[in-house]
Design a protein that fits this description.
The protein is of the alpha+beta class and 798 residues long. One of its GO terms (molecular function) is metal ion binding.
């Protein structure tokens, strides 16, 4: 009590200008004794965010007899490098010239010539899982990402919700004094969270990135992206006619961001995650790149694998004696294809190669901006050439619309050949056929999704860090996995692994640092065991051996079941002597198979791999990610609703009504009342020339416009549509009727409907990106010019 009284008196004295008043105590005055506040908890760097610094100054009665100690921001360790992680998408081991492939990648080669190439680096065989493992330093099931986020289910290894006890490297670097920026494809926010309501804690800016510019889901149209800046949707800055392409746009943003960081702070290191769209479908390179590849692949996929294999041997990218694995019987030979098929398939491959060429050029443009600014020498570049193998999701015939393939619809050759000259342009969403994907994975078996074989999981990597690596242009052959990237970064930056983040104890990082390989070509591999699993395509690597089993075919995305999984034969490879998994030893080594199967189960239990689930496209069902009963009605107000389609009303192919309460001004109104999807697949209700219209289109197999038969009056109007499924339809068809103020206003059959319509949003009051109906393509977003008081979507039966 006495001390509080003296404190009050002293404050009054200061306030009255009586700073010289002698205060009781030891003769130095009450405040003269306070040279420092109580120290903050000590930190060895394993607690993040770091505790506030202790005050080390002196507090006297006035500032004249006090010593300040301003709290400085957290600083990275002295000399810590910038970090640049480059991740390409859907690039097979045998695609890029740097690793013996047919597509020139001079910018990748330039980094490799001054750095290191890795030929035994591995991913998870699919997008979201690899990306989560890459950033977390933990296995994909350990961070709840056993499948892509659109397929999340209610089991710990599969929710798509990266847990709070697995902080990403972006969080660790940011809290240790780094600026952090992410550009391009994210694909690690659970689909229900990709909405204006969030939550945003698992968006890039909620997981340690100061800045995000890119797209949130698995792919986007390069000419018309669904684009976010931080947590807000933003329109693209210019049109394709004005030269817009997303890859160039994200590169521009990355260059500007990096230059501004350096302008603001000459010494602060930065971390950039440069996650390109290339070469994930839709394959959309600029036209001038496509022309470069005319005729380059006329020899076909079988010959291309032979050429690539020979080049890989000649370049010593693969060991001498490595065999080229044969073509599976499920993939047709090139010679068996018709002239029309060859014409289409070569054009699709030319387009695919052009996209890789263009992607390398844009990556190079960013890297060269760092070289020009003097940043590159002390930048740790980890360039991962694909998040999985080349994709077989285009089916045996390739496709003009890859989204259709993902939902189980193979459009076939006829759809592509009639629009062959559009391939790669803004009106296409193309994908190569399986044969070319397989060729791009030479010398390995299989493709993306097939986690059992290296065609799905072995991706090249280049590491470049002139200030930290003495070796130049050398090859490294140690067995490593994408979870080893984070511990390598922390090791090179002299930053400890965090044990406590935001008060939450952390799972141990499961990767190992690769730094031991930087200057020791013959170092013994420190990764001795690694499991692989994706939709029950599974494998276990241990001490030089791989046991594996494949479930079904990667281009057949529906109908995989437990019986198919259980019937899958097991294979065995000694990859110390058999780089390409070409010599199956299962029949000769049954005991080794059993031992490795037992180890796989141990790893599966340890890392939340169980329960095994072979389903693929079936997991797109949103009911798997909803708590309680799924909604049957949705109500929206106003003219500015913008949601990803899976967050909006789930309508087709179910029976439903859409009821819009409108106010039409004098002279009438026009514009989109509500819509979902894009030019290639979607539905739209709009007014034009005083009449209502309904449009449904999907992937060249559905194309219906229903014109209204009555005019829309002025004043308050109820516009309603009613869809009734046909129980006999095998294609989810039915009848759609329109009503104006309760009176019939038009109807038609919809022969085919789908539960998803691509990656463009659900909206009320406009159609923001590409028009569902070309009838209003010249009207911009075709915003509604009246008032939309309310729109109610209701399922009429389940």
């Amino acid at each position: 009590m006495r001390s509080r009284f003296l404190l009050a008196v002293s404050l009054v004295a200061v306030g009255l200008g009586l700073g010289g008043v002698d205060m009781p105590g030891d003769g130095n005055g009450l405040f003269a004794q306070s040279t420092a506040q109580t120290a903050s908890p000590a930190s060895d760097g394993t607690q993040l965010p770091k505790p506030d610094p202790a005050f080390k100054g002196k507090i006297g009665v006035t500032f004249k007899d006090s010593t300040p100690d301003y709290p400085l921001p957290v600083k990275a360790p002295q000399g810590a490098p910038n970090v640049l992680v480059i991740l390409l998408d859907d690039v097979g081991f045998g695609m890029c010239s740097t690793f013996g492939g047919p597509v020139p990648t001079p910018h990748m080669q330039k980094l490799a010539d001054n750095g290191l190439k890795y030929n035994r680096f591995h991913t998870t065989a699919l997008c979201s899982p690899t990306r989560a493992a890459l950033l977390a330093g933990r296995n994909h099931h350990s961070v709840a990402t056993g499948v892509i986020i659109e397929m999340g289910t209610g089991y710990p290894g599969y929710t798509g919700l990266i847990p709070e006890n697995a902080a990403l490297v972006s969080q660790t670097l940011r809290d240790n004094g780094y600026a952090t920026g992410m550009f391009g494809k994210w694909h690690n926010t659970a689909e229900p969270d990709i909405s204006p309501a969030g939550p945003f804690n698992r968006w890039p800016t909620g997981l340690g990135f100061d800045y995000f510019y890119g797209f949130n889901q698995g792919e986007t149209n390069q000419y018309y992206p669904t684009l976010y800046r931080n947590t807000s949707w933003v329109p693209q800055p210019k049109s394709p006619e004005e030269g817009y392409h997303f890859t160039a746009d994200m590169t521009d943003e990355a260059i500007r961001w990096t230059q501004n960081i350096r302008a603001a702070s000459p010494t602060k290191p930065w971390f950039v995650y440069f996650s390109t769209s290339g070469v994930h479908a839709p394959h959309q390179p600029p036209r001038d790149y496509l022309a470069k590849y005319k005729g380059k692949f006329d020899h076909g996929w079988d010959k291309q694998r032979e050429l690539t294999h020979a080049k890989q041997l000649a370049d010593k990218v693969i060991p001498q004696g490595t065999k080229l694995t044969p073509r599976p019987s499920e993939i047709p030979s090139w010679d068996s294809r018709s002239a029309d098929e060859k014409k289409v398939y070569t054009r699709l491959m030319e387009n695919y190669a052009a996209y890789m060429d263009y992607t390398d050029a844009e990556v190079g443009r960013y890297v060269e901006s760092l070289r020009a600014s003097g940043e590159l020498d002390n930048t740790l570049v980890m360039y991962i050439v694909g998040d999985n193998g080349a994709s077989a999701e285009g089916g045996l015939e390739g496709t003009f619309s890859e989204i259709a393939s993902l939902i189980g619809l193979q459009l076939g050759l006829e759809s592509t050949i009639k629009r062959i000259d559009e391939i790669g342009g803004p009106t296409s969403e193309p994908h190569v056929p399986v044969g070319w994907a397989w060729a791009m994975d030479a010398p390995f078996q299989w493709t993306k999704q097939v986690a059992s074989h290296f065609g799905g999981t072995r991706n090249p990597m280049v590491v470049h860090w002139p200030k930290g690596i003495k070796a130049k242009g050398e090859l490294r052959t140690q067995f490593h996995h994408v979870i080893d990237v984070v511990p390598t970064i922390l090791d090179c930056c002299s930053i400890p692994e965090p044990k406590l983040v935001n008060g939450i104890p952390q799972k141990p990082i499961e990767g190992v640092s690769m730094r031991y390989t930087f200057d020791d070509e013959k170092a013994t591999s420190r990764r001795t065991t690694q499991y692989f699993e994706l939709a029950t395509n599974r494998a276990i690597y241990h001490d030089g051996w791989v046991a594996c089993a494949r479930t079904g075919l990667p281009w057949v995305t529906l109908g995989k079941d437990l019986a198919l999984m259980q019937a899958a034969p097991w294979e065995l490879y000694n990859i110390e002597n058999d780089f390409s998994q070409s010599d199956d030893l299962a029949a000769k080594e049954p005991e080794k198979i059993k031992a490795l199967q037992a180890r796989l189960i141990e790893e599966a239990k340890k890392y939340d791999v169980l329960p095994l689930d072979p389903r693929f496209s079936e997991r797109f069902d949103p009911k798997l990610r909803e708590a309680g009963d799924p909604p049957t009605a949705w109500t929206y107000f106003g003219t500015s609703v913008w949601l990803p389609e899976p967050i909006g009303p789930q309508l087709f192919p179910r029976a439903h009504t859409i009821t819009a309460a409108l106010e039409i001004p004098k002279g009438g109104a026009e514009g989109v009342v509500t819509c979902a999807g894009s030019f290639s697949a979607g539905w739209s209700i709009y007014l034009k020339e005083k009449k209502p219209y309904f449009r449904y289109t999907a992937f060249d197999v559905a194309d219906v416009t229903i014109p209204g038969t009555v005019e829309i009056p002025e004043g308050k109007v109820e516009l309603k549509t009613e869809f009734t499924p046909d129980p006999k339809s095998k294609t989810n068809g039915g009848t759609l009727k329109m009503f104006v103020n309760g009176k019939p206003a038009g109807e038609s059959k919809l022969e085919r409907t789908f539960f998803r319509h691509g990656l463009e949003p659900f909206e009320v009051g406009r159609d923001s990106i590409t028009p569902v109906d070309p009838a209003y393509k010249d009207k911009g977003v075709f915003a509604f010019t009246g008032a939309i008081n309310k729109v109610v979507f209701k399922l009429t039966r389940e």
